[in-house]
C-alpha cells in the first residue's frame, strides 16, 4: 500500500480533514487525530508507516505481539504503527474505519452533531 492509497481511505471518512504538512501530517475528525504520518526531519518525510488508534489497548497489544502492527515511537496506549509496504488493503480499510469511529465516538455530543452523518455500515 502507498501513502496516496492510504490517504484515499482516510479522505472518504465523513468530515475527515488532512492537516499538515509540518512536523506531522495527520488525518483528523473534529480536530482530533485518527491517523498520523511523522516526518524524520524538515527535509524528508517518512511515508512508509502510519500510526492509527485501536478500539482499546488490548487490541493494540495483540496486534503488536502478533506482528500485525508495530509499537509506535511517540504514542502510547491503543495506538499502533502500520507498515504501508506490507499492509493489506482490506486490513488498512478496517484499521482506518476503527480508528476513525473510535476517535469520532470520543468527541463531545455537540462536536459529533456538527459532523456529517456516518454511513449506514459504520
From TrEMBL:
Gene3D superfamilies: 3.90.1150.30. Pfam families: YjbR (PF04237). This is MmcQ/YjbR family DNA-binding protein. It comes from Roseobacter cerasinus.
Amino acid at each position: 500500500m502507498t501513502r496516496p492509497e492510504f490517504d484515499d481511505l482516510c479522505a472518504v471518512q465523513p468530515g475527515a480533514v488532512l492537516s499538515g504538512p509540518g512536523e506531522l501530517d495527520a488525518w483528523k475528525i473534529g480536530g482530533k487525530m485518527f491517523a498520523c504520518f511523522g516526518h524524520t526531519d524538515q527535509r524528508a518525510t517518512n511515508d512508509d508507516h502510519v500510526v492509527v488508534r485501536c478500539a482499546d489497548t488490548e487490541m493494540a497489544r495483540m496486534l503488536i505481539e502478533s506482528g500485525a502492527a508495530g509499537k509506535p515511537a511517540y504514542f502510547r496506549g491503543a495506538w499502533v504503527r502500520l507498515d504501508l509496504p506490507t499492509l493489506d488493503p482490506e486490513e488498512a480499510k478496517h484499521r482506518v474505519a476503527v480508528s476513525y469511529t473510535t476517535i469520532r465516538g470520543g468527541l463531545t455530543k455537540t462536536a459529533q452533531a456538527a459532523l456529517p452523518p456516518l454511513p449506514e455500515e459504520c
